[in-house]
User: What shape does this take?
Amino acid sequence: MIKTIIVGPRGKMGRLITQIAANSEELELVAGVGPRGRDYIGQDLGQITMLGRDLGVPVVDDLSKVIEACDVIIDFSTKEMGLEVLELAKEYEKALVCGTTGFNSVEKDLFRQAGETIPMLYAANTSKLVNVMNKLLQLATAAIGEETDIEIVEMHDRWKKDAPSGTAKEMGELIAHELGTELSDTAVYGREGTGERKPGTIGYHSIRMGDTPSSHTVLFGGFGERLEISHHSTDWRGFAQGACDCASFLAKQSAGYYSVADVLKF
Assistant: This one.
């Protein structure tokens, strides 16, 4: 069994990951780690994640106290907590799956560099279907990217903190690299005023409303026709299952920087 620690177990993703991992034949939960000062610290992981039963697994607020007991860490917490987890994972040489978003380019580089010493997998989205969509985007961009106008529309719930979403940014980066450029040089975030669309740009539009789990559509607009590639989720269970699959994969790897594509063998 792969001994696993969940960071951020009370969040929407953390709860689902815990529920799936608790029933996994490969993963064994050994601890949950929450932010300092939360009222559920010291309680059982199964109870705080609404599993309906005790797991005999503690929730603590100090990862360093439990990290030696694990083989892999799954972190879906916050940007600030995620950077702390990264440093401890490197110090104790533990495999780390991080699905937290909101990091800037410099911070993302820290995760890539961690792959030099530990098995590291950073993914803005761990859904299998989203990663299939990413492959389709690469194919479409290679075929028609230079002759179409590309727009990305993403929807999330009202509580989503970052915009555009990490998944939408990752899609834009894939498209930009396929076109031989950088997203930072081509992205346009929303529009107002007057003027024609600048050729070669990638447009972003972020919608935040209600409890919409996640929706991403990339449009390739030509003349007289357009192609739309979309992924819509009704809940986050697919992302949570993907995170557990990533943890099972990563715990068996040597040091390196991995992606969900590696897990899925794309």
Residues 128-144 form the longest helix (17 residues). The CA atoms of residues 104 and 255 lie 23 Å apart.
